[in-house]
Design a protein that fits this description.
This protein is an alpha/beta fold. It is about 40% helix and about 20% strand. Strand 11 and strand 12 form a beta hairpin. About 40% of the residues are buried.
């Protein structure tokens, strides 16, 4: 067993957050001891064209160096590596990678690729942390951390600005610590000084393959089919067939080009698509109505076309009525959403949820 705090026992702390994450990270990073025996990696969901100000916001709060990760830079103790905009943050054995791998849960950077890669490369040295956020990015990755002998830490959902990400992690993973945000920083310092857990860890099926995908490596269709079985669903981004992944605590899908989705992210996107398509239907019907009115007005000037003009006008009024019904659905009906806090526990396979 290595000596706690030694170079060979360096801990890899991976942190994932989404909505509400800026405020949460300010508290977390500000509370981490500057002597911590760990390298810290952070994924905050951001827009692809965002200004990338997170390191500048966090740096005044800690003496630890905080910066966007640079591709292939060496992992060093006491540094905070932040995922750059529009890049996955991937941890290798000795270095950091920033990649343009396929988006996961419609995000790049996404939390799961970071957690999975850290679990694969560093096993029991990893401490995974899930903070505030919507939906469930990070649950599958945190499960991989636990399967490889690492430690799982989750912000108490009652303490989180957005409870869904922590709650989903609790529903799918055997959590070691569920504590308020203010306690996570000091907790990480204590965990980083503990001796590594002894005993063999398991290698989740597909972990290496999914990490290769995040690293932009070419994966054959034969290899992809090892991850899951073809489903009747298609990828919202590239419209390829989706595989329903096996051996995952979260019901997940991945297409042959690499895009990956949890059930919750897929449902959320399809619900958004429904509203978008309804607005498209309204626009099409209204354009149809305008065209009919234009034709009817033109025909009114011809003495022998007045009856035809009248029928066309009636058709336009019927189209107008139908557009009004569709608009009423969009404007007044409740969204077709499932309660996010209950869905996670419902869809988690019982054999994988809490071993």
């Amino acid at each position: 067993m290595t000596t706690p705090g030694s170079k060979n026992d360096l801990r890899i702390i991976v942190v994932g957050t989404s909505a509400g994450g800026l405020a949460a990270l300010r508290v977390l990073v500000g509370a981490i001891d500057q002597q911590i025996n760990a390298a810290i990696f952070v994924v905050q969901h951001t827009t692809p064209d965002g200004p990338g100000l997170l390191p500048h916001i966090l740096q005044p709060l800690t003496p630890l160096p905080v910066a966007h990760a640079r591709d292939q830079e060496t992992i060093r103790r006491g540094r905070v590596y932040v995922a750059p905009p529009n890049r996955h943050l991937v941890v290798d054995a000795k270095q950091v990678l920033t990649t343009l791998g396929p988006r996961e849960n419609f995000a790049r950077p996404a939390v799961d690729p970071l957690f999975r890669s850290a679990a694969l490369a560093h096993g029991p040295r990893v401490i995974g942390v899930i903070l505030t956020g919507r939906l469930d990015d990070g649950s599958a990755g945190l499960w991989a951390v636990k399967e490889r002998g690492g430690i799982a830490v989750v912000q108490d959902p009652r303490d989180a600005e957005y409870a869904q990400m922590p709650q989903n992690a609790l529903s799918h993973v055997r959590i070691d610590h569920c504590v308020p945000l203010a306690q996570i920083g000091p907790l990480l310092g204590r965990l980083a000084e503990k001796s590594l857990r002894s005993g063999d860890s398991t290698m989740p099926k597909g972990l290496e393959l999914e990490t290769r995908i995040a690293k932009e490596e070419q994966v054959s269709k034969r290899e992809l089919l090892q991850l899951g079985d073809p489903s009747v669903f298609t990828c919202p981004e590239c419209h390829g067939a989706l595989l329903q992944l096996k051996n995952s605590p979260v019901l997940r899908f991945r297409c042959h080009t690499g895009h990956a989705y949890s059930l919750e992210s897929l449902i959320a996107q399809l619900n958004s698509d429904i509203e978008s398509n309804l607005w498209t239907a309204i626009r099409s019907i209204e354009e149809y109505t305008l065209l009919l009115d234009h034709v009817a007005k033109h025909l009114q000037t011809a003495p022998d076309k007045k009856q035809l003009a009248q029928r066309i006008g009636q058709t336009a009024r019927e189209a107008e009525r139908r557009a009004g019904k569709v608009r009423e659905v969009v404007m007044h009906d409740e969204p077709l959403l499932i309660d996010e806090l209950e869905m996670g526990a419902t869809v988690a396979p019982a054999a994988l949820r809490k071993k």
